[in-house]
Amino acid sequence: MSEYISNISMILSKYWDVFFITGVGYTLLLALITVVFGALLGLIFCLGRMSRVKVLNWIVVAIVEVVRGTPMLLQLYVGYLLVPKVLPFTVTEFQSIAVALIINSAAYVSEVFRSGIQAVDKGQSEAARSLGLSASQTMLKIVIPQAVKNIIPALGNEFITITKDTSLASTFFVGELMTSYLKVRGATYLTMECLFIVGAIYFVLTFILSKCMNAFERRLKAND
């Protein structure tokens, strides 16, 4: 046991600033980009799925079902290989993986948005229409703001989940925490010690994010 503790101390003193801090930064950046743009794209998917335009509805349903029905790692491979070929400008590996994660997140968030919108009392929509608001104005000014407030806990959970799921991006060495683990393990040949450090960092990150989201939810409830 003392040998493990000694090895962990050595790894932290030698590689903390070099690899692990950078890995934390890339992990949080990737998770934040995924959640923000995934929420925006998820809202677009949600509105498309609820649209009366059949073709748009079918397209969105197809995208959501394909994303939800295939492994995330497979989607990351597709994003890594396909995105640079599809876009007319040069993108990095990090950006390609971010695009794949955004689409994955959007597919799940779209269903969260849909349930949030459906949970808003229909009487409010009817009242808004009776006051002269159009259907689009009612959706943007009345329904969506209330739906967003209802689904904030779910979006917080998505942020925490994505923070952990970024570990799959280590397959492509984009710089997040598991990439840091692979680099340090390759330099030290100490597998269990490196895994323990990275696992502890993930736990601390998700624990802090969870507490922050709980505090934010309590503040929202207090303002109701």
Which helices and strands appear, and what pairs or packs with what?
Layout (H helix, E strand, L loop, with lengths): L1 H48 L4 H15 L3 H15 L6 H27 L2 H9 L4 H31 L11 H12 L2 H33 L1
Description:
The protein is 85% helix and 0% strand. The protein is mainly alpha-helical. It is globular.
- CATH fold-level topology: MetI-like fold
% residues in beta strands: under 5%
Task: Return the CATH class.
Answer: Mainly Alpha
- The ordered string of helix (H) and strand (E) elements is HHHHHHHH
CATH superfamily: MetI-like
User: Mean pLDDT, nearest integer?
Assistant: 88
- Helix fraction bin: over 70%
| Overall body shape | globular
The count of domains is: 1
Notable characteristics:
single chain; 85% helix; 224 residues; MetI-like fold; 0% strand; mainly alpha
Briefly summarize what is shown.
It contains eight helices and no strands. The chain has helices at residues 2-49, 54-68, 72-86, 93-119, 122-130, 135-165, 177-188, 191-223.
